Amino acid sequence: MLLKKLNPVFNYLNSKQWLTIFVFLLLWGITSVSYWKKYDWNPSSMVNFGHEFALQNKSETPENAILFKGEAGDLGAGYDGQIFYYFSRPLSNFNLNWPKGFDESYRAPRIGYPMLVGIFGLFGKTSAIFGMYFWNITLILISYFYLRKLLDDEVKPYAILYLLSPFALGSYYVLVSDSVMVSILIIAYYYFVKEKYLIFVLLSSLAILTKEPALFLLFPLGLAALFRKDRKKMIVVGSVLVIPICWHLYLSYRFPNWRPGRLTDFIMPFEGLISYMESIWRQLAVGTNIKELARLLSRFPLVVLFFLGVFLPFTGKLNKGWEFRISFLFVLFMIGTAGYYHFWSVYENVSRMFTLSIPILLLLFNEDRTIRKQEYVLVTILILFLFLIKVLFISKQMNYQVGF
User: Fold this and answer.
1) Kind and range of the H or E run holding 49
2) Residue 203 pLDDT
3) Interior CA angle at 275 toward 272 and 280, to 5°?
4) Closest CA relative to residue 156, chosen from 9, 364, 21, 14
5) What integer is the mean pLDDT of 209-216?
6) What are the b/e assignments for 165-200, b being 16+ CB within 10 Å?
């Protein structure tokens, strides 16, 4: 098995944790610098402020921030990092003047990450941007050590797959919330295992408020408690919904057009995958734009990983770690029902949807050593190398300006 040939590498890094952390900081550092150098070495570039949104929220936009003007085929100027930044500003300013130009039904429920960023935002707009970097880097490092505590000695070496996940790195690359949510969720699960339920409830609530897919792990934990007739754990897991429900009640009052079912608009079973494959065939039929074809094919390893993931939970001893199998399938369901326009048309949009799959895979492997994980792990490693090549050598400079 090819993966077995990599075991000495995993074991060596496991025995040299300082080297593991160094490799992590090196990869994330190189990724950051490669982005900054395209935009006057300005760290605000990774927030991806869109010029059109910055104009609508001019008073809260940092001076000399990099403002992207948009490109042909974009879904809009800038990227989602700006949304979390702008939603953090009212919290830092102790007011409820929410940002303009964004869909509250879709964005406002995800207040967890802006709340964390808002702590740094108390010291100014530039500090808020620093906070976005701080939480992404710090939380994944902390959660990595928590995850190691959850794993048996035989599985611990593979924890580096979580720390060096291309999906977490992709989330950090655009300073969005996927990696933050997963990190908080892993820490919360540790306290669930240790039966420190108050910390678990608070952190799990924060994870849900950061991004809803946190429920993909929490719901199966509740099912496991129900199956084992553990009433205490059933109540504990159910309690994680109290704070998010309260926040949603506020949103229904604050935004008259807000509706809790907004996310269901994005559930389009296999439409994204089918449309993506059709776009490849169309490009092959035309056969004139090699760069466009290469851009399209950059997402193809994710298609391979998706189908490997669908197969994976049904391997091994199915009675072991079944809650993690369900959790893993929930993640794959999210990816399989993602539409083309909002997700599969953009590499970053679909790749970070895999972020939660890596720690879930490790927790499942910890329960059942017989699962067939090799292919999923190897393709994930391949995606990491391809992502680094994309970042360092392929990604082009976008149209931008400095400040207003």
Assistant:
1) strand 49-50
2) 99
3) 125
4) 14
5) 97
6) bbbbbbbbbbbbbbbbbbbbbbbbbbbbeeeebeeb
- Output the CA torsion 259→264→265→269 (10° steps): 180
Considering only CA atoms, which of 330, 363, 337 is closest in space to residue 223?
A: 330
The tally of domains found in the chain comes to 1
How far is the C-alpha of 334 from the C-alpha of 178, rounded, in Å?
A: 13
Reported as a single tens digit per residue, the pLDDT across 259-270 is 666 666 667 888
pLDDT confidence tier of residue 76, bands split at 50, 70 and 90: low
**Structure token pair of residue 91:** 């919290």
Taking the CB of residue 278, how many other CB atoms lie within 10 A of it?
11
Whole-prediction pTM:
0.95
Q: Is the pLDDT of residue 335 over 90?
A: yes
DSSP letters of 212-255? GGGHHHHHHHHHHHHHTT-HHHHHHHHHTTHHHHHHHHHHHHH-
Answer for the pair 16, 390: CB distance below 8 angstroms, yes or no: no
Q: How far apart are CA 180 and CA 202, in angstroms?
A: 15
The two beta strands, 66-68 and 400-402, are antiparallel
- Decide if 62 contacts 91 (C-beta within 8 A): no
Helix H or strand E encompassing 206: helix 197-210
Whole-Å CA distances, 148 to 359, 361, 362:
10, 13, 10
> For residue 351, what pLDDT band results from cuts at 50, 70 and 90?
very high
Three-state SS at 175: coil
- Length, in residues, of the chain: 404
Cβ burial, residue 73 (10 Å; 0-12/13-18/19+): exposed
In terms of residue numbers, what domain contains 265?
2-402
